[in-house]
Amino acid sequence: MKKFYILAGILFFVFKTNAQQNTLLISQESAFYYEKFIHTDSNYLETEVRPILYSILNEQKIDSFLNFKSNNSLISNLLNNDLYAKRKDKLSYSVNPIISTLYSQLLSENKNAYLLEGGLSLVANYRNKLALQSNFSLTNQQFFNFDSPPLIEKQIVPHYGKALKSSGNSLQYALFDARISYSPSKYFNLQTGYGKNFIGSGYRSLFLSDNANSYPFFKANAHFWKIDYHFIHAALKHLDESDADFNLQNKWAVMHYIGLNLSRRIHLGFFETVISNPNNNVTKRGFEVNYLNPLVFIRPIDYNLGSPDNVILGLSAKVVILKKVHLYTQFLIDEFDFKQLKKRNGYWANKIGVQAGFKAFDAFKVKNLFLQGEINTVRPYTYSHGYPITNYGHYYQALAHIYGANFYEALGIVNYDFTKRLSINLKSKVAIIGLDSNNEFSVGQDIFKSYSLHENNFENDIAQGDENQSFSNDLAVNFLINPKWNTLAVFQISNLIIKKENATNSYNFISFGIRSNVFPKMSNSRFL
Predict the structure, then answer these.
(1) DSSP 242
(2) Radius of gyration of the chain (CA)
């Protein structure tokens, strides 16, 4: 596989292009400052695969819109400019700080959490044809005791990788990502690096999200006629729970996403992915090179090979109504038996997921008011596999929805911009999740367990098992300090309620400080 990545790298230098190739951040928090430009000012409708290129947007218009006007040169530089930037001949580059100093306090108890982060971000462009982005930071973070305990116990940073050092609920860790982007023409783009990708229009994704750790990848995008084609090849890691040392095993993912723009208002998408184990003791075939053919579908290849790999399919749609209202949906199929589905008997192998939502810009004709509502539900055992290593996860975290499977979720977001940089944001969420009561069987939520551990063939319902309910509300006031730094000043009031069979726990806390969105910091128990 090393030869494949070397060849992909050589291809970057074969062609010419004149487009700006650096990408927007993948984080949802950053998206609020760009969504209106992406979805109302751009002629390019297909934005399902993120991060997206600046080249599809009017970058100068965005920079002008976010510019903070001040007669004081020091303030103007601090709030608008790169920390260091230089242009020489056809090469331009900039360096910016990554800074986070956040403090959270539980109001009912004398407990606190904090986040201290420092690092650098580098962006370079050559002839507006080739771009490099790279970010590195060192972080010390203390979590509340209800934040992702299974991950903390394994010294895994939520949404990232292995910690350098741990002490109780405190983790010290380093974060790194890098991405090279090159376009042979305006119809074709190549990317390679170490980072995350996201497929979908929603806050969540049932196809591919930014929930798990970064990974090495190669991505090719092609745009022709009304079709957008995306190919992603990624190297993933499986954490073996049976190993006392929690060693990581290698596995591969190949993904296709094909988008069809029927018009400026209607977009349809088809998604497929395969997770394979190159060291399978049964087949001993290594990596299946047939999966790298970008012109064929994975499912027929997998079927013809009699492969033990995990193949997942999906369909998506987005419809724009009233110009500024977007309706979107995803339908995911892991396994499917239509005869059993018609009987409505809860057959365990009918593994599907559904997402439906909307986005409204300038809602109710109120300028700068953004609304979003979304529901997600995934049946038990979806994303899991007979061989645990080929689950749809990476670094002991789901590649799609954060809850894995066997859940209902509904969420709502209200965001209002008082000024170009000052906004208030309300996020509310309710989730019902069915968890395992023991390790002997699986009720279908834990995608890292083999689906052969299912207890019943029939009568499997969503949220079966030990039912856990969570309700959360986060009200935040954000000020974008500097768009080039992607840094915000934040004050947030949060409420979290967790209901289990015999107990209800309620937490109220405040958080404030400075937060970088280069590496978003989230938690499993709170809203995210």
Answers:
(1) T
(2) 23
Among 63, 178, 79, 159, residue whose Cα is nearest residue 119: 178
pLDDT above 70 as % of the chain: 81
Give the closest residue to 349 by CA, choosing from 332, 329, 328, 334.
Answer: 334
Instruction: Please report which confidence band the pLDDT of residue 523 belongs to, taking 50, 70 and 90 as the band edges.
Output: very low
**Neighbour tally for 5: CB within 10 Å:** 15
pLDDT of res. 33: 60
**308 preceded by a cis bond (ω within 30 of 0):** no
Residue in 396, 276, 260, 257 with CA at minimum distance from that of residue 332:
257
Asked whether the predicted pLDDT for residue 61 surpasses 90, the reply is no
Q: In whole angstroms, what separates CA 232 from the centre of its chain?
A: 14
Residue 247 carries which side chain, given as an amino acid letter? N
At residue 319, the 3 state secondary structure works out as: strand
Residue 463 and residue 434 in contact, taking contact as beta carbons nearer than 8 Å = yes
Predicted pLDDT at 449: 93
What is the tens place of the pLDDT at every residue in 332-371?
999 888 888 888 999 999 999 999 999 999 999 999 899 9
- Contact status, residue 368 vs residue 416, Cβ threshold 8 Å: yes
Mean pLDDT value across the chain? 85
Question: Can you tell me the distance from the alpha carbon of 183 to that of 267, in angstroms, rounded to the nearest whole number?
Answer: 23
- The Cα 452–Cα 436 span in angstroms is 14
What's the DSSP call for residue 451?
G
Q: How many residues belong to the chain? A: 528
Query: For residue 88, what are its two tokens?
Result: 């020489």
Distance separating alpha carbons of residues 400 and 253, to the nearest angstrom: 13
With H, G, I as helix, E, B as strand and everything else as coil, classify residue 278: coil
**pLDDT at residue 390 above 80?**
yes
10 Å Cβ neighbour count for 157?
A: 26
Residue 93: beta bridge partners?
Answer: 86, 124
Compute the distance between CA of residue 43 and CA of residue 40 in angstroms, rounded to an integer.
8
The distance in angstroms from the start CA to the end CA of the chain is 35
93: helix, strand or coil: strand
pTM: 0.91
Q: 3-state class of 39 per DSSP?
A: helix
Q: Residue 89 contacts by C-beta under 8 Å, 6 or more apart in sequence?
A: none
Specify the long-range contacts of residues 412-417, CB closer than 8 Å, at least 24 apart. Answer: 412/371, 412/372, 412/373, 412/374, 413/203, 413/370, 413/371, 413/372, 413/373, 414/369, 414/370, 414/371, 415/32, 415/369, 415/370, 416/366, 416/368, 416/369, 416/370, 417/32, 417/368
